[in-house]
């Protein structure tokens, strides 16, 4: 079995390569998603050593949690699998709103438990900050749920550094999830030093920049077929050049670009585990090969330098 990494100060131990499941039943995020492919990729992950799954209410909505719950149940292995989910969104008259009130978070946990077909959630995040709820009050509600045994660890996501500090006034925050990848490195300035000082584990989302950092695209890619901010022409073309430099490092090590990129995140003190997403089972298996890559200090610096400009 792969070495299990402790997530920050929690009692959760996981394979450092987890799985993001926003494309598992996340019909509102990706067009034409095949649910069976989603089920299959979660099964593939679980039977090949992945034991950390990241989902959320808003992926679907609800559908990702439901599918993860089905596969979790059929695995018969609940106690070995670490489930993270998130809430904050609510749909009112067809409109999405954010809510961090204690009452809403408590109700959200109860509903997520049903969709996941389990009686505890290992890591529960406030997915996005709302405007009004004091963040320490919101986290205080999660602390009560932790004391009741409904959740095992507390996370916040997409909070500013000020919101994180307010949320962590009593030291209850275990995990911060935020965007971080070789193309978006703002978190290095204030979030990384804060989380490291407070033993909060940083879980980066978009680690592969939606696939752009896997090295599978080239200048002939038809960008009009691609969705998302990483496929804007200028950024896309600049990134291709940098990816080619990463490919040289990958070739030299007998690895692929995606493995080098993912391994680089795991060299950061602030990061214990990563959650690359996938649409197909073969991508899940491929990303697991990251565990075979060891980057030297020189390579870590070189990769950072390539993406600095
Ligand atoms: P990502 O990990 O940067 O990219 C995942 C995508 O890259 C896959 O869906 C797949 O898309 C492609 N891919 C993955 N592995 C590959 C491989 N080995 N070879 C080729 N292509 C590969 O982006 P993400 O999935 O959006 O983010 C990761 C996770 O973070 C999500 O699943 C979700 O759980 C979480 N997340 C959280 C937030 C938040 O607000 N907290 C926001 C976003 C995401 P294609 O097949 O289409 O290329």
Domain count, please report it. 1
What is the helix content?
25-40%
* CATH level-3 fold name: TIM Barrel
Strand count, sense and barrel status of the largest sheet are: 7 strands, parallel
Which range does the strand content fall in?
5-15%
Arithmetic mean pLDDT? 97
How is the quaternary structure best described?
Answer: single chain
CATH H-level homologous superfamily name: NADP-dependent oxidoreductase domain
Q: Find the count of extended strands (DSSP E, 2+ residues).
A: 11
Bound ligands: NADP nicotinamide-adenine-dinucleotide phosphate
Rg over C-alpha atoms, rounded to the nearest angstrom:
19 Å
N- and C-termini, Cα separation: 39 Å
CATH architecture: Alpha-Beta Barrel
Structural class per helix/strand content?
A: alpha/beta
Low-confidence stretches: none
Describe the overall structure.
With 309 residues, the protein is an alpha/beta fold. It has one domain: TIM Barrel (Alpha-Beta Barrel). It has ten helices and eleven strands. The longest helix is centred in the last third of the chain and has 21 residues. The protein binds NADP nicotinamide-adenine-dinucleotide phosphate. The site of NADP nicotinamide-adenine-dinucleotide phosphate has 26 residues, from α9.
Question: Which tags fit this structure?
Answer:
13% strand; 7-stranded parallel beta sheet; 309 residues; two-stranded antiparallel ribbon; binds NADP nicotinamide-adenine-dinucleotide phosphate; single chain; alpha/beta; TIM Barrel
């Amino acid at each position: 079995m792969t070495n299990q990494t402790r997530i920050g100060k929690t009692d959760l131990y996981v394979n450092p390569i987890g799985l993001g499941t926003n494309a598992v039943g996340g019909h509102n995020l990706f067009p034409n998603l095949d649910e069976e492919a989603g089920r299959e990729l979660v099964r593939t992950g679980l039977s090949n050593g992945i034991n950390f799954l990241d989902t959320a209410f808003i992926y679907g909505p609800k559908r990702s949690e439901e599918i993860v719950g089905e596969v979790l149940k059929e695995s018969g292995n609940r106690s070995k699998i670490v489930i993270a989910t998130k809430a904050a969104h609510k749909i009112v008259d067809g409109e999405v709103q954010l809510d961090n009130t204690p009452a809403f978070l408590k109700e959200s946990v109860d509903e997520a438990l049903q969709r996941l077909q389990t009686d505890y959630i290992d890591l529960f995040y406030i997915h996005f900050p709302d405007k009004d709820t004091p963040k320490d009050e919101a986290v205080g509600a999660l602390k009560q749920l932790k004391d009741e045994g409904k959740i095992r660890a507390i996370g916040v996501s997409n909070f500013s550094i000020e919101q994180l500090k307010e949320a962590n006034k009593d030291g209850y925050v275990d995990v911060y999830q935020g965007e971080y990848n070789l193309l978006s490195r703002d978190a290095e300035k204030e979030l990384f030093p804060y989380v490291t000082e407070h033993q909060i584990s940083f879980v980066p989302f978009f680690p592969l920049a939606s696939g752009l950092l896997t090295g599978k695209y080239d200048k002939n890619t038809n960008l009009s077929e691609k969705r998302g901010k990483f496929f804007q022409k200028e950024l896309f073309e600049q990134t291709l050049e940098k990816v080619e430099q990463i490919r040289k490092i990958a070739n030299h090590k007998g690895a692929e670009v995606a493995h080098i990129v993912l391994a680089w995140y795991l060299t950061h003190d602030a990061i214990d585990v990563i959650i690359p997403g996938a649409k197909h089972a073969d991508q899940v298996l491929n990303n697991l090969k990251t565990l075979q890559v060891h980057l030297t200090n020189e390579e870590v610096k070189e990769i950072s330098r390539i993406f600095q400009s």
